[in-house]
Amino acid sequence: MWQLLPSTALLLVASARPQAADLPKAVVVSDPPGNRVLTLDSVTFTCQGANPSGNHSTRWLHNGTFISSQTSYVIEAASVANSGEYRCQTGLSELSDPVQLEVLVGWLLLQTPQRVFQEGEPIRLRCHSWQNKPVWNVQYFQNRRGKKFSYDNSEFYIPAARSEHNGSYFCRGLIGKRNESSEAVDIIIQGSPVPSTSALLPFWPHIPFAVVMALLFAVDTGLYFAMQRHLHNSKRAWKNSKVSWKQDPDK
């Protein structure tokens, strides 16, 4: 009996723990938002997920390799080597989906929280400079066409995304006496969802009437042109059949 107690206790503990399928996925949140930064920028990753009481450790992975057990993972001065895939996991969550970080070398970077927007969502674009150096005379471009000019580097704000906002964006500005441009970023606007059948039901009574009217119009138009052709052909036939009468010279 005493030999059975330890195994029984283990079974009870195992049954009390949530199964992997029941655990929610952790979520990686980055600051600044988006997945592109310049060298020497600071980046903070936070892992959103539950932990057992009194245990706040988090498992962080960079390109599949364990890098930290802190609640947040901070990169003080980013380098190209920090580029890659980041994932996290807490004590009561599954491993998160990967979040990509791209560290670029350059003077300017067009920052956006995401690259895919739904129609109606606001779009905020910011022209970020290396080491936050002052930037003046900032221009924002869409498909190489100027969209906004800002003397003191304000953001480019679109209140509601529409299909015409699809395209390639970049920014340009003066850093000291240097005229610099960022790399282009492709922004994609996804359309509104297709309305359900129930949304179309109020219009069903009008559809048969519209179809009948369209058919009547087509038939009436066809008869009109048919009559016009018939009259034209009859007139031409009458002209061709006319007889010329001449007076008899002997009379």
TrEMBL record:
**UniProt source species:** Neovison vison
Sorted alphabetically, which Pfam families does this protein's record hold? Ig_2 (PF13895)
**TM region positions:** 203-226
CDD domains per the UniProt record, alphabetical? Ig2_FcgammaR_like
Q: Name the GO terms of the biological process aspect.
A: antibody-dependent cellular cytotoxicity
SUPFAM superfamilies from the entry? Immunoglobulin (SSF48726)
> Residues of the signal sequence?
1-16
* Protein known as: Low affinity immunoglobulin gamma Fc region receptor III-A
Please name the PROSITE patterns in this protein's record.
Answer: IG_LIKE
**Keywords on record:** Cell membrane, Disulfide bond, Glycoprotein, IgG-binding protein, Membrane, Signal, Transmembrane, Transmembrane helix
